[in-house]
Amino acid sequence: MTVPxxxxxxPGPPPAGSxxxxxxxxxxxxxxxxxxxxxxxxxxxxxxxxxxxxxxxxxxxxxxxxxxxxxxxxxxxxxxxxxxxxxxxVRLGYQRKxxxxxxxxxxxGTGRTRGGTLRLSGRVEMPADExxxxxxxxxxTVFVTKWSCG
Length: 150
Fold this sequence. Notes:
Low-confidence stretches: 36-51
Helix content: 10-25%
Shape: elongated
Mean pLDDT: 78
Structural class: alpha+beta
Order of helices and strands: HEEEEEEEEE
Largest sheet: 5 strands, antiparallel
Number of helices: 1
Number of strands: 9
Oligomer: single chain
């Protein structure tokens, strides 16, 4: 008994069936997801640069604002990024430096956060050649912002 040789056929699409429909469904779903991701990325605002005079903490942001390089009112703000159980009591202030010396911290005061935020201000006599940064103290740990120079 002889077995006939296999037939050779031209390459082409596989016969229609459930596997073909399944692949088409997956392809359509993938295209839809990619379109959604692209639309979301296009609609999202650009990420802001880190604010000047701020320090990024593990769970928050500490920022100092004021007329850097001039005497005036400076404001230090501590803001938690995430909700927390209970509020914190912290001491807020500043530290100055120039080419010769880094001064000990001066304090605006101590306060308790409300809704995860505390803002304290005070007048600072600051010469033009000095830099300044915010300082926060909580349970014997000191946190600082970046230096801001005029």
